[in-house]
Amino acid sequence: MTDSSKSLIRAGFLSNDGKNTFGGKSLKEVDKILKGMSDEDAEKYADHHVMELWQNQMIKTAYPTPVRSYHIIYETFSRPLESVYMWCINQFEDMGFPIVDKITDVFSASEQSSFFGISQQRLGLQQDKVAQYLGAIGKLVKDLFQIVREVRIIDERLQYYDATSSDNRTVREPAEIALKGLFVDLVEGGAKSPASVYGLSRELQFVTLPDLFFSIHPKTKEEIKPMVDKLEFNRKVKEVLERKLFQYLMWRDSTYGELKTRRTHTIKYLRQHYDAIQLYMTWIKPYLKQIARLSIDQKKTNSADLIAAFEGSVIEVELLARRIPEGNKEVYTCIVLNLTYRTSPEIHPAEEYQRRVIHRGKIDIQWRSYGWTEKQISAFKEMRNEESFAMLSTISESIQAAMDELGDDLRKYLIEAGEKFPGVDTEEEKKKPAKPDLPGIFDPFLAPFKGASEIFGSLFTESAGKKAAKAEADLSGEIKTAQGGARVLGWNHYKLFKKAHKMITW
User: How many structural domains does the chain have?
Assistant: First the structure.
């Protein structure tokens, strides 16, 4: 089980050699060591459960060493194997386990079987829906770039307008000249238009008009006439200059208001796109999980138990039952139950043109008992489900990477639109004391998929070795109680299963 060794190490399930090598190291340091280590070398550092599969045939499993373990192979062609699963669930409830988590639920079927055809039809429907949502998300992200670019251009233009009201002449005059240039080029049509400032200079010989237009800068319309009257030019030149300056000021004041309104609406539109992306991500997550569950497990497809031409399937279900023993506060009694089915599915018609699959055949059941803390339980669950998060994480990280390209402007504009990002949004919040490790703008996308790194990271801190040793010593009494309960309850579940299914017991 070399493939699972590194996962066990990252989850904190270490052998004695592993504790000496990885104890006290952060997750980043652990990953760095594991990166340069072969799977075979990593085996000795992981706490593998070694079990006897057949007589004198010892194998290392992908599980940490339990307090006790039991193994049964049950075969029947007279009753559906679903009943075995339901019996195990009900028995956990009867034994006082309030929490039963499903850790693994995967299957594979031979390509020519009817069960394969039914599952692939349902899988195709889910995949089509995901493709639609991903297409919509891609379009929204693409539009987001254009919207942010548009707001940036508006902000750049508004800087010209804001500078024209400055009392500093060295700031105001360049801004006025820049805006007048835009007015001549965009509104009047530039030199090609006979009615523009440059056109009048060329066509009607008002050669001084461009110089006068770009050198006189009245702030308001009321200042135009007094400033023009002071000039020592003929009446016609001053008349045309006065007209052009009035047109310019009217354009400047009206477009300033238009740009501010446009900016407000564009930012609101930007937030709508952002919220829509989040909404689509919320919708797509269940479909992705369903696709992962409906997809054929390729590892099991290569098993000798499956022949393409036969009606066959392999199903793996794993449960984690836990309860807190009386007197304990942190350490749980845990039983990990693994059920591996090798079945011959039978298709039966049901109501409303549906088809029902009944599984009969062989089931391999393994019980493993542990005394674990909440962190160890979470680390085990994330270790077992690590692969199922890969597809979701890839999509979320790709969206985050695209949005990272927009820089801080996206954050700034969303804050203006009313989006709340703790610690960075309003002036009032800036005055408050900073809080460490606050969530960022992209956390809504990645939060559901961070589990493994956060949980594993909590097990490997800089002083993890000392803290772990101290915590273990403090919890030694609870660990002993939890392991004792796991030993008894695991045995009872195993013994009652044999009695309920008419096996030899003692």
Answer: 3
